[in-house]
Design brief:
mainly alpha; 15 helices; about 75% helix
Length: about 325
């Protein structure tokens, strides 16, 4: 079997399917701040990740002793910063961005994740050279800029200040999740004795612990200003997002991360942008504009071009591995 056929074979296609599924579930996260708008970013983050932590604890309880025995202090520290960068801090910044700047603008900035992750991943051992990814990255940039073109234009007085706040929060979320995506993929490459699903559940435990630490702050921020119905709605949204996005979505993402190289992992984040925008259109009860339709086409074509770039093995650089399987992100 030729290496080029192997690289484009079943593992790659299955990995892309996992990435699409994760994007469809993660896209729902952009709707949550609008569904329970009366609560702030900290309420949303603590609510979601308390539920995520509890669900993770229930799912990991049956094999906790054997799993904990595989972890050292180094792994627990890694889980702590991954939970902060990819969950707690990221979600607070994203919620603030959506509530101040809207779903479209936030999707625009988060949609740049494939560019940031792919550029970093192109430095990994056995990665596809960045020169072969230029057409895909260019289309990605055109797509996300087109999506946000109309959203970034001020439409009323006072809008500019809120938009700027949302933009800065979205940029912070972009940086935070880029750190998570790269770090998480590389840790999955190191941990041969821990499954992708277990690593996701362990991340959930670490995130849940952070939510517990933040819980007193939440209670101090005007608990009595919301009635029981509002708190019940927040709990329902938090549990739903925890199950669909955190447990199922993260599990799909981790499975994908073990099947695809980091340069292709970055492109899969585009599906989150696409689904977030689709859900946003449904929420606003409107069809996409011609510019948004053009952006969709650019984003989809960008992913297809990136997949095509991985059909052929990378040119040998130094010590090559002919006939190698899907490259695992290099450890550093």
């Amino acid at each position: 079997m030729k290496a080029s056929h192997h690289v484009f074979g079943s593992p790659t296609l299955v990995g892309v399917a996992f990435g699409m599924g994760a994007g469809a579930l993660w896209g729902m996260v952009f709707l949550a701040p609008e569904l329970v708008r009366e609560f702030g970013p900290l309420h949303h983050a603590v609510g979601r990740y308390l539920a995520y932590g509890l669900l993770s604890a229930l799912l990991v309880a049956s094999h906790w002793k054997s799993l904990a025995a595989k972890l050292t202090r180094r792994e627990w520290l890694a889980l702590g910063w991954l939970a902060l960068a990819g969950n707690t801090l990221y979600y607070m910044l994203l919620t603030s961005a959506v509530q101040n700047g809207g779903i479209a603008m936030t999707s625009l900035v988060i949609g740049l994740l494939p560019v940031t992750v792919t550029i970093i991943g192109s430095r990994d051992r056995e990665a596809v050279p960045l020169s072969r990814l230029v057409p895909s990255l260019l289309l990605c940039a055109i797509g996300v800029v087109s999506i946000g073109w109309e959203a970034l234009a001020p439409r009323e007085q006072g809008f500019a200040a809120a938009q700027l706040t949302g933009l800065l929060c979205a940029i912070g979320a972009l940086i935070s999740w880029t750190c998570y995506a790269v770090g998480n993929s590389r840790w999955l490459g190191r941990l041969n004795n821990v499954s992708a699903q277990d690593w996701s559940l362990l991340t959930g435990l670490a995130t849940g612990a952070q939510a517990v630490v933040l819980l007193p702050i939440v209670f101090s921020l005007g608990v009595g200003s919301h009635d029981m119905a509002a708190w019940g709605q927040l709990a329902g949204v938090s549990i739903g997002i925890a199950v669909l996005a955190s447990v199922v979505g993260n599990g799909l993402w981790n499975r994908m991360s073990r099947l695809l190289p980091l340069t292709l992992v970055g492109q899969m984040i585009l599906f989150e942008t696409l689904f977030a925008l689709i859900y946003g259109f449904l929420w606003e009860q409107r069809l996409p504009t011609p510019l948004e339709t053009f952006a969709f086409a650019c984003v989809v074509l960008s992913v297809l071009l990136c997949i095509a770039a991985h059909r052929k093995p990378s040119p040998p650089h130094g010590a090559a591995h002919p006939g190698a399987k899907i490259p695992v992100p290099a450890t550093t």
